[in-house]
Amino acid sequence: MDSSKKKISFEAALERLEKIINSLENEDISLDDSMKLFQEGKKLSQYCLKKLTEYEKKIKILIEKENKEFDLKDFPEENDMEEIGEEIEEDVEKDKDEEDLFS
Q1: Cβ(17)–Cβ(43) under 8 Å?
Q2: 17: number of Cβ within 10 Å
Q3: CA distances from 56 to 1, 42, 53, 69, 103 (A)
Q4: With contact defined as beta carbons under 8 Å apart, do 77 and 61 qualify?
């Protein structure tokens, strides 16, 4: 099976990759067959990684706003994660301050 020539689902590619790994670990196979399986496994793992990267970019994050409504935002790039962390820390501090007022 050549994953670059056939369109397969992520799940099918992952399942085939697991079978290849199992065969390489547990079966008594020739060196030639091992190399063929290894090459197929490498292509499948690259395909799976590519699909996961594509899916990651499509993920939406629900962010609860103060008025308890939810807002959909694109999954942030790595450099945006620090800004989101700062916003979360500010919200936590604000909540602590409000709790102190009522204590």
Answers
A1: no
A2: 19
A3: 26, 21, 5, 24, 42
A4: no
User: In this structure, are residues 78 and 50 in contact, taking their beta carbons and an 8 Å threshold?
Assistant: no
CB 24 within 8 A of CB 38: yes
The model's pTM is: 0.53
Task: Look at the block and give the residue holding tokens 């935002």.
Answer: 73
pLDDT of residue 38: 94
Residue 62: phi, psi to the nearest 5? -90, 125
Higher model confidence: residue 57 or residue 82?
57
CA distance 82 to 60: 17
What are the sequence ranges of the domains in the chain?
10-58, 60-101
